[in-house]
Amino acid sequence: MAAPAEPGHSPGFKKPPALLRLKRKRPGRRSDSAAAAEAAAVPAPRGPSAAARRRNPFSSLDNAPQRAATAPQPPAAAPAGGDPSAVPFWQFLEPASEEKPSRRAEPAENSDIFSLSQDLHSPLAVPKAPSSPRQEFPADWSIKTRVLFMSSQPFSWAEHLKAQEEAQGFAQHCRATEPALPRSVQEPRLSTELRCAFQQSLVYWLHPSLPWLPLFPRLGADRRMAGKACPWAQDQALQQVLMSDWSVSFTSLYNLLRARLCPYFYVCAAQFSVLFRAAGLAGSAVPTAAIAPTTRGLRDAMRSEGIEFSLPLLEESRTRKQKNSEESLETETPGGGSSVEDAGEAAPSDDDDDGSFSWLEEMGVQDKVKKPDTISIQLRKEKHEVQVDHRPESLVLVRGSNTFTLLNFLISCRSLVAVAGPQAGLPPTLLAPVAFRGGTMHTLKARTLSGRARLQGGFEDVFSLEVLGPVLPHSLHALTLLLGPAQRGSFRALLSPHEPSAAFNAAPPQEGEQQELPPCGLHPRTLDQLSQSPTLGKSSLRLLEMEDYCYTWKV
User: The domain containing residue 378 runs over which residues?
Assistant: First the structure.
């Protein structure tokens, strides 16, 4: 019923012009249905339509804020066979918002299962075709910032661990106890072995330990660290103490690695990260160290210290370009020589770089043409090397005894510690799967979530387990070993990698006879997986699915 028009009878009555001003002041705060009802209650003005007069010609429906629909959507179409149960439940997840991000970004800590599931169907998340089912998924040496496991079975077994179960999990980690679980756990919530093994799989070791500072990731973390208390920023004596303590921990980790008691560890600095791997891992018979991303200045400094290294991804790219140029040269047509010229520009020949200009004398114009100086020739040679700075192709691989030289180089490297900004004076972060001198035990954050999945004819519950923190390669594999028996051999995982660390999946050259690595604190199956030569190149796993105890994945 419309409000009375007589003044004084209704204090809340507003004339149409006042109502329009109120609506302009509060855009998007009322639903469309409420606005339509209120507009219907206001007498229509004479003359042209009010909506037509108020319409902004530059407005766009795409820019208007949208909210998730609360009413159930029409059910999705059934598969070709007519059986709705054959459709995976995650294909019917309701999105939390209709907005599509323009680029991939790491999810926020307060995001829910529905907002995370949008990336599950994003073309950016799954650009490649899924693999064929395998008994094991390939080793992924990138560090994950978040892993979201989803299943039709509840994750109640991972909730509210008892004090005894938590303590037992820590003890199993420190004693490198191998958990023994059956192929399928009938009552996961009542399985003490499963809950203790879950706690064991969340443990990692960190140095330095500063609870008020986020110490991973370090690349691009200035905004997250801004405003935090850093008492060492202006105190040179305190910086020296921190760096000295860090050097002791770094050396301890390297000694454990050389003794094959630590399988691998990471050094995460403000400008680059380093992955040290023991002999026997990643298909290498000698210890290796991978650095990414790098710059020309860092590589020149390493050369000046006598550190021998290779650029495997850059060499692979050059080999591929050369092969493509040779193939195009064989099939070259009279009008199709541009691709060969482009390939030649990408990989200049030695004849052009040797500084020889005898052909000018043959033409008789040697005095009329200005010859480039030595600096120009050198810059032209280094042009392609400079172009890969800060990119995955700048990955540097150090092998054998050169890793010890790299250790000494990093301890005295000036670019290892930032001199300005929120990270000024803060030593790099050390991450390892086993205990080391000065290391502090930490656990990944785990929480269970629940939601609703849209199926043919209704909805069903969807259960998920979210793991936050620096998820190291051994932790990811250890979690999958538990989820198989606990979730009846069926789950799906959405992986959020730390992008700069994806280059660590480059395969080192196969030289010498590979040595078998002792368990050194890892599950034998995990150690066997990490011992295989990497196959992901500069990519990383984005999606991992287990169905009937067999894996498929996408990168």
Answer: 317-330+343-387
**Residues 6 or more apart in contact with residue 335 via CB below 8 angstroms:** none
127-163: string of b/e by CB count within 10 Å (b at 16+)? eeeeeeeeeebbbbbbbbbbbbbbbbebbebbeebee
294 and 363: one domain? no
pLDDT digits (tens, 9 = 90+) for 132-154: 788 999 999 999 999 999 998 99
Q: Which distant-in-sequence residues (6+ apart) come within 8 Å of 235 by Cβ?
A: 425
DSSP string, 178-192: PP---SS-S-GGG-H
Alpha-carbon span 526 to 521, nearest angstrom? 10
Same-domain check for residues 289 and 143: no
Q: Is the dihedral of CA 183, 186, 188, 191 positive or negative?
A: negative
One domain, residues 292 and 370 = no
What is the C-alpha to C-alpha distance for residues 118 and 93, in angstroms, rounded to an integer?
8
Q: Are residues 123 and 152 in the same domain?
A: yes
The enclosing H or E element of 547 equals: strand 543-547
Does residue 468 share a domain with residue 548? Answer: yes
- The gap between the terminal CA atoms of the chain, to the nearest Å, is 60
Tell me: the pLDDT tens digits for 114-138? 444 444 444 333 445 566 788 999 9
Residue ranges of E strands in 185-306: 203-207, 264-268, 273-277, 288-292
Nearest by Cα to 153 from 489, 551, 467: 489
How many domains does one find in the chain? 3
All residues at 6 or more sequence positions from 130 whose CB lies less than 8 Å from its CB, including other chains: 543, 545, 552, 553, 554
Residue 470 burial by Cβ neighbours in a 10 Å radius (0-12, 13-18, 19+)? buried
187-223 pLDDT, tens digit each: 999 999 999 999 999 999 999 999 999 999 999 889 8
349: tokens are: 């020949």
C-alpha closest to that of 179 among 520, 507, 450, 524 = 524
Rounded CA-CA distance 112/171 in Å is: 33
Strands (E), 335-457: 396-399, 429-432, 440-443, 445-455
Indicate whether 105 belongs to any domain.
no
The token pair that represents 114 in the structure block = 């529905």
Distance in angstroms (rounded) separating the CA atoms of residues 45 and 65: 28
pTM for the whole structure: 0.71
Q: What's the CA dihedral at 226, 230, 236, 241 to 10 degrees?
A: -130
Q: List 446's β-bridge partners, or say none.
A: 467
Task: Say what the alpha-carbon torsion angle 83, 86, 91, 92 is, to the nearest 10 degrees.
Answer: 40
Could you count the other beta carbons within 10 Å of the beta carbon of residue 466? Answer: 22
For residues 409 and 436, membership in a common domain is answered with yes
Residue 324's pLDDT is: 74
**Which strand ranges, in their side-by-side order, compose the sheet holding 144-151?**
445-455, 458-471, 144-151, 490-497, 543-547, 550-554
